[in-house]
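Bench notes, afternoon.
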Amino acid sequence: MSSTTVETVVKPSKANIAVFTNPAHKLWINEAEPTVEDVQQGTSLKHGEVTVAVKSTGICGSDVHFWHAGCIGPMIVEGDHILGHESAGQIIAVHPSVTHLKVGDRVAIEPNIICNECEPCLTGRYNGCEKVLFLSTPPVPGLLRRYVNHPAIWCHKIGSMSYENGSLLEPLSVALAGMQRCGVKLGDPVLVCGAGPIGLITLLCCQAAGACPLVITDIDEGRLKFAKELCPSAITHKVERLSAEDSAKKIVESFGGIEPAIALECTGVESSVAAAIWAVKFGGKVFVIGVGKNEMNFPFMRCSTREVDLQFQYRYCNTWPRAIRLVENGIIDLSKLVTHRFKLEDALDAFSTAADPKTGAIKVQIQSEDYIQETQPQ
């Protein structure tokens, strides 16, 4: 292959379509960039980029929130905006400058592009990049498309792993970032607040790390039942309408009287954060993974007089290689988390399912399996 030739595995024939929302909270499917003609010719690739045919994308709670609310804190949908940031697929075109990836490679997409110049980037904490382009966060278009161009450095090989599991590496990365910073150790009593996808994956990580006893809370009986099936050793606790202090007492009862050393708060709900603060032991830690409202009240003096550490998380960094190893070696099994699957053309139904608690959806996947040549990993 010459230095000016872009290699392609197949000439895609279907139009590149994507899932859009806007400030009026509409949701629709329309054509997107790169165009199918650009993909066929490889003309839209920049230095260091590859084209990925996206095979599987999970719907995140933030996708639904951008659709329904139009914003998450300061991140505001101000125009037509493509959703999605949990994706895996197959490389179908490679810019000549890329040497470590080739056409046919199966990859998971880490959905950020960093500046490599600011202090967080230079010190290895690139999730704090001051100029980050995070796909699906307005105004940066997301991954819910048929094809996407992305820097090769942020495309991680997944070998024979399924595309579905490859897309789940993104929420697993959220959980792993929390695990690395909160410091769960063998035998630690740990509380996980919230049995949504992030809470459930965090539960699996805590189990793998040797936390015990391990309690997970939620307000929904169906999600707690799912958590018990996913992790039979976990103790489930249904949150009732009580004060934060009384709720914490009930949580400690579920621990058999043991106060948790660490609470991993995965909801971002004020009452849940407060209950976690009341529940942990003296010198314990409440680590907040969940995203909440701009301002909230919390029991300050409980933190003060009990020396409770209150920490927060913003996305992740340097987690994909670790996540891939955990899944490849069977330490973390993500296969049970996907409850609903839809074709890309049926993405509107997928979003309706993900947004409706009555469906019992945990993780909804939007998949495209019909337009690229399958190659067996070497």
